Automatic annotation (TrEMBL):
Keywords: Heme, Iron, Metal-binding, Monooxygenase, Oxidoreductase, Plasmid. Pfam families: p450. It comes from Sinorhizobium numidicum. This is Cytochrome P450. It comes from the Bacteria.
Length: 429
């Protein structure tokens, strides 16, 4: 679609987002959609919201105006669920549950997956960051190009998850190799071969986590899996093995590729806006502001993959969303809505300086981690990895530059990369 010339309504925004033009740069189309068709009904019948105010309201209204699909409705919203392991695992995740089941599951994981536990990982994360940068340094200093995506952005969250889950690093690298296939299989427009590849990868993850749970039950250590399978003297309620496998599967899917993509985007922002690098050279508040602006400008997940079912007829912007319709939100479009963020295509960390995480100085919410009862459990873990990484990359490689243009994955859902080649420029070069 040529967004500069088109005046007719878009028939299917999901298909347009998968086009080569949108893979390269989705934001002109998102601007057109937000201005001309903000409550979009796709050819499949799914509704897609693109204005910040509508998205924020929909996320906040989950559990009230919207709900997840009930078990008996799974086939309606996921017609291939009867034969797909990945879709059944997705249906069992926390993000698909409504209160009171959601309340129970979130409480059980939150009692162990705490802010304090994540902050206690900072020394380990800093050590992993330093080791990965040490590994890149010799080739860079010889003037060679290095794929920062593979050597750093992918490796860091894999190694952090290995530390968090108490897994051998090689095991995590093996599991992570299939995450991209699973995510593509969960896209609303995935082909049958893509879903089959996702199911094969999910089966490997499911089997591994089942075995890991048994090992942690007999030989507990100081990791999150041991904590989740362990007994709590003050709480008789526990997660079943099936619930725990679903939880770990969801955490891995939700926190690996998205964190890697955000690291890539953060490095690209450092290179594209050298005048903004000073945010990474001062106090922690400045680094945090830079991270929030990266998350706003380039949300790693373009739209929500989880169905939100309208509990009643809902009117938004003159469009009636009928009861039982499947509604998704275009997070990346909301983050660049000028009614929420002034001059939204301009990269400006000042809009988040000194505020609460995710909130701008104007009191607007950055949407990349969601909002409401389904706010991302791993948000703090992702933020800590970015805060620990970016100042060290800037300090270690101040003349870092692109060796060639990065290569993106052809995904409508995740704005991720295949390669991000970098090199060092000579001082003054």
């Amino acid at each position: 679609m040529d967004v500069l010339e088109t005046t007719a309504a878009c028939r299917d925004a999901f298909a347009e987002l998968a086009s080569p033009a949108c893979i390269h740069d989705p934001y002109p189309f998102m601007r057109w959609l937000r201005e001309h068709d903000p409550v979009h009904r796709a050819a499949s019948g799914l509704f897609l919201l693109s204005r910040h105010a509508d998205i924020y309201w929909a996320l906040k209204a989950t559990g009230d105006a919207f709900r997840g699909p009930a078990p008996g409705e799974l086939a309606r919203y996921f017609p291939r669920a009867a034969t797909s392991l990945s879709l059944n695992l997705l249906a069992s995740t926390l993000a698909m549950k409504d209160p009171p089941t959601h309340t129970r599951l979130r409480r059980l994981i939150s009692r162990d997956f705490t802010m304090r536990r994540i902050d206690n990982l900072r020394p380990s994360i800093a050590r992993i960051v330093a080791a990965r940068l040490d590994g890149m340094a010799p080739a860079l200093e010889r003037g060679e190009a290095v794929d920062l995506h593979r050597e750093f952005a992918l490796a860091l969250p894999m190694l952090v998850f290995a530390e968090l889950f108490g897994m051998p690093q090689d095991d995590m690298f093996g599991l992570a190799a299939g995450i991209g296939a699973i995510l593509e299989g969960l896209s609303p427009h995935a082909s049958d071969p893509q879903l089959a590849m996702a199911d094969a990868a999910s089966a490997r993850v499911q089997a591994y986590f089942g075995d890991l749970i048994q090992r942690k039950r007999t030989d507990p250590r100081h990791d999150i899996v041991s904590m989740l399978v362990g007994a709590h003297d003050d709480d008789a309620d526990t997660l079943s093995d099936a619930e725990l496998i679903s939880m770990l599967w969801g955490m891995l899917l939700g926190g690996f590729a998205t964190t890697a993509a955000t690291i890539d985007h953060a490095v690209l922002a450092m290179l594209a806006y050298p005048e903004q690098r000073h945010w990474l050279q001062g106090d922690a508040v400045g680094v945090e502001a830079f991270v929030e602006e990266v998350l706003r400008c380039d949300a790693p997940a373009m739209f929500s993959s989880i169905p939100r079912i309208a509990q009643r007829d809902i009117e938004l912007g003159g469009v009636v969303i009928p009861k039982n319709a499947d509604v998704r939100v275009l997070i990346a479009a909301g983050n660049r809505d000028p009614n929420a963020f002034a001059d939204p295509d301009h990269f400006d960390p000042a809009r988040f300086y000194g505020t609460s995480p995710g909130m701008s100085t104007d009191g607007k919410i950055m949407l990349s981690f969601g909002h409401g009862i389904h706010f991302c459990l791993g948000a703090q873990l992702a933020r800590v990895q970015l805060v620990e990484s970016l100042p060290r990359i800037q300090a270690r490689f101040p003349t870092l530059a692109l060796a060639e243009q990065p290569t993106r994955e052809p995904s409508a859902f995740l704005r991720t990369f295949r390669a991000l080649p970098v090199q060092l420029h000579a001082q003054g070069g």
